[in-house]
From TrEMBL, chain A:
The keyword Transport appears for this protein: yes
Name of this protein: Spermidine/putrescine transport system permease protein PotB
Annotated PROSITE patterns: ABC_TM1
Gene responsible for this protein: potB_6
Pfam families: BPD_transp_1 (PF00528)
InterPro entries membership: MetI-like, MetI-like_sf
Domain ABC transmembrane type-1 span(s) in chain numbering: 62-268
Similarity-based family: Belongs to the binding-protein-dependent transport system permease family. CysTW subfamily.
Keyword match Transmembrane helix: yes
UniProt-annotated location(s): Cell membrane
GO biological process, one term: transmembrane transport
GO cellular component terms, semicolon-separated: plasma membrane
TrEMBL record, chain B:
The protein, known as: Spermidine/putrescine import ATP-binding protein PotA
Matching Gene3D superfamilies: 2.40.50.100, P-loop containing nucleotide triphosphate hydrolases
Taxonomic superkingdom: Bacteria
Pfam family, one: TOBE_2
Species the sequence originates in: Ruegeria denitrificans
Species lineage: Bacteria, Pseudomonadati, Pseudomonadota, Alphaproteobacteria, Rhodobacterales
Function: Part of the ABC transporter complex PotABCD involved in spermidine/putrescine import. Responsible for energy coupling to the transport system.
Length: 283, 366
């Protein structure tokens, strides 16, 4: 077999998969987005820009997604970085494995169940009741953007911790000694060596969490109680409840475009931060 | 080290233990200003621990480390006027060559102004013959070039001590030779005190003013390369500095300035050991391969032993012979080209005699 033939054979399964599961559905959605809603729901072929003209009606969903997805990513990063740093640099190897497993343990249960647990914690008889007992009244947590943010950080933390852990674990500890040897204090060594060299891990973690958050619908549905909804919730509503497939397709296409734009801006930014190093890979 | 030489660093009764492991045992050593000192020994002999205590990466369990007359036991690495060239260079991969070299200057407080940094970095680059390489990325540099960057990164800070931890271990043989000459030149040119750690005797012999031979965490002998070669104190030092033939012997007579030992072959030989040795003690005698003469006729020397030639290796300016004596065993003999031309080449199986001149035989501690 020729070299080319072998390459083609290796790529075939993934290629077919992408074609059937990604390219074709995307094409269908693209075509649907120019159609009309049937009388009993579903889709009627047409060519109209009406669905796109109607997009502003769903502006709140886009706004919520575009605010809470980056905010959730940043919050997860802020919490995950010290944890990953501790695990990779400071923790004794004896404890490291057990602690790493603890980070994964939540994944053993469905996110649905875990998010329901937060309904209780943030609900009237949970944290607010506790706060009331120390004299802080009228705190409402559940069904607020804050509740959604808590759910997001909780649900996606491991996805942020692991890439950062890996990049810090790979970090040559002799570089830290070299930095100290050249007169750098521990804090400056962190800023000038550790942090820049963990940029690939930060970039990967943020990318993973951000992309998944852009399509999130479960956490806002459970912890936002219909008051804080994402584009994902709008899609569930349009496709499954009001059965307006054409409009749903237009919203979905818009989300794809928004995602492509934000992610490519983000990648440009990261590439600059990493100083065009050849070993910076985003995934 | 001459008596007048000023001491820049000192180890006083320094011991370092890691748990139950004693990595360094009661080290006493003073390092003179501007000298090139090497710690020589196999891995695990404590040489790297000694270096790391000078750098400030390890704290001595007992004893004192002094820099410029001050005890620095509790001074962290980043406060010590000492810089290190790491074994695998430990260059910062996210910084350019320029930024790597400028790193130390940029840590100084009060801050060094940009112009001064740029000038000093350029100078350091010139010194290691990498002028113009400043904007390059570390991964664009070859192993030898990375080694020079590591060197420049250390010397640009004008440290009181430059520590080199097996700096040439990762270079190929030819490059290593080149680097040895360069390091030596650099040290003379800059006048900085160099402390090198190596397991390579050739490296230590060719570059150092003094060598500190270590074994099992202790210093066994300190001296100039010539002293160590000509007057090793023990079999270990003789074996580590150059190669030698070793034979067991028993002391039969011990006087103040001369002792007599009996070889396993029955001959009695005399010598002046470096250390006091009592009669009856088991010792070891050493004869360097190049000090042995190989002849066909029985020589007139005090002692001549009959041997059978086993093997011959042509080395260019020398030929190395392996010759076996019935009682003592194998002798390695290095015959210079001229002597071989006079005497003719010996073939395997041929009978010959080995002999040596006065003073060639050393009596050593076992």
């Amino acid at each position: 077999m020729t070299e080319r033939g072998r390459k083609a054979l290796l790529l075939a399964p993934a290629g077919i998969w992408l074609l059937v599961m990604l390219a074709l559905p995307l094409l269908v959605v693209f075509v649907f987005s120019f159609g009309e809603r049937g009388a009993a729901g579903g889709y009627v072929p047409a060519f109209t820009l009406e669905q796109y003209a109607n997009l502003p009606a769903r502006w709140t969903a886009f706004k919520n997604t575009l605010i809470l997805a980056p905010l959730g990513t940043i919050a997860a990063l802020v919490i995950a970085y010290p944890l990953a740093y501790f695990l990779a640099v400071r923790c004794s190897p004896k404890w490291r494995t057990s602690l790493l497993i603890l980070v994964i343990v939540p994944f053993w249960t469905s996110i649905l169940i875990r998010s329901y647990a937060w309904i209780f914690i943030l609900g009237g008889r949970g944290l607010p009741a506790l706060l009331e007992s120390i004299g802080i009244d009228d705190v409402r947590l559940i069904n607020t953007p804050f509740a959604v943010l808590v759910g997001i950080v909780y649900g996606y933390l491991p996805l942020m911790v692991f890439p950062i852990f890996v990049s810090l674990d790979k970090l040559d500890k002799r570089l830290l000694e070299a930095s100290a040897d050249l007169g750098s204090t521990p804090w400056r060594t962190f800023r000038q060596v550790t942090l820049p060299l963990s940029v690939p891990g930060i970039a990967t973690g943020c990318m993973l969490v951000f992309i998944l958050l852009m399509g999130e619908f479960l956490i806002p549905a459970i912890l936002g109680g219909g008051k804080v909804f994402f584009v994902g919730n709008a899609l569930v509503d349009l496709f499954l409840q009001s059965r307006n497939w054409a409009y749903g397709s237009a919203v979905a296409m818009t989300l794809v475009v928004v995602m492509l734009v934000t992610v490519s801006i983000y990648m440009k930014f990261i590439a600059r931060l990493g100083g065009q190093r050849e070993d910076v890979s985003l995934m | 080290m001459s008596v007048t030489m000023q001491t820049i660093a000192e180890l006083r009764g320094v011991t370092k233990t890691f748990g139950n492991v004693v990595a360094a045992k009661d080290l006493n050593l003073s390092i003179g200003k501007g000298e090139f000192l090497s710690f020589l020994g196999p891995s695990g002999c404590g040489k790297t621990t000694a270096l790391r205590m000078l750098a400030g990466f390890e704290k001595p369990t007992e004893g004192q480390v002094l820099l410029d007359g001050e005890v620095v036991n509790d001074l962290d690495a980043h406060h010590r006027p000492v810089n290190m060239v790491f074994q695998h260079y430990a260059l910062f991969p996210h910084l350019s060559v320029f930024d790597n070299i400028a790193y130390g200057l940029r840590q100084q407080r009060p801050r060094v102004d940009k112009q001064t940094i740029a000038t000093k970095v350029e100078q350091a680059l010139e010194t290691v013959r990498l002028g113009g390489f400043g904007p390059r990325r570390i991964w664009e540099m070859s192993g030898g070039q990375q080694q020079r960057v590591a060197l420049a990164r250390a010397i640009v800070n004008e440290p009181k001590l430059l520590l080199l931890d097996e700096p040439m271990a990762a270079l190929d043989r030819k490059l290593r030779k080149e680097m040895q000459f360069e390091l030596q030149n650099l040290q003379r040119q800059l006048g900085i005190t160099f402390v090198l750690v190596t397991h390579d005797q050739e490296e230590a012999l060719s570059m150092s003013d003094r060598i500190c031979v270590m074994e099992g965490g202790s210093i066994v002998q300190v001296g100039s390369p010539r002293e160590l070669y000509d007057m090793p104190r023990s079999r270990y030092v003789a074996g580590f500095v150059g190669t030698s033939n070793f034979f067991d012997a028993t002391v039969t007579d011990s006087a103040a300035d001369q002792i007599t030992v009996r070889l396993a072959s029955g001959q009695k030989v005399h010598g002046t050991p470096e250390i006091p040795i009592d009669a009856g003690q088991e010792v070891c005698v050493s004869i360097r391969p190049e000090q042995i003469t190989l002849t066909r006729a029985l020589p007139t020397a005090e002692i001549a032993l009959p041997v059978t030639i086993q093997n011959r290796i042509f080395l260019g300016e020398h030929t190395e012979y392996l010759a076996r004596n019935e009682a003592l065993g194998d002798f390695h003999v290095l015959v210079p080209r001229q002597a071989e031309l006079n005497e003719g080449t010996f073939n395997a199986g041929e009978q010959a005699f080995v002999s040596w001149g006065e003073g060639a035989l050393l009596i050593l501690e076992k």
